[in-house]
Amino acid sequence: MASRSTSSKGKGKRGSKGSSAAAEEETEWAAWRMSKEWTTWTMKKAKVVAHYGFIPFIIYIGMNSEPKPQLSQLLSPI
């Protein structure tokens, strides 16, 4: 006697829940990927700003300290 297999295939509205869950998962994946791209882009820009802005920032801090040095005094090694 052949028995019918009891598969877990959904009927009716149950199938639409699966597609809704898949769409939600796809939306979450897209949001995660966009977040990763923005983070990478921001870190690359921050690296460039830190690279080119560090020395001018140090000079700016030195110019605003007491006693007020001249620019030539800040840049000279002695």
Automatic annotation (TrEMBL):
Transmembrane segments: none annotated. GO terms for biological process: protein import into mitochondrial matrix. Keywords: Membrane, Mitochondrion, Mitochondrion outer membrane, Protein transport, Receptor, Transmembrane, Transmembrane helix, Transport. It is a single-pass membrane protein. One of its GO terms (cellular component) is mitochondrial outer membrane translocase complex. Pfam families: Tom7 (PF08038). It comes from the Eukaryota. Residues 1-28 are annotated as: Disordered. It is found in: Mitochondrion outer membrane. InterPro entries: Tom7 (IPR012621). The keyword Transmembrane helix applies. Belongs to the Tom7 family. This is Mitochondrial import receptor subunit TOM7-1. It comes from Acorus gramineus.
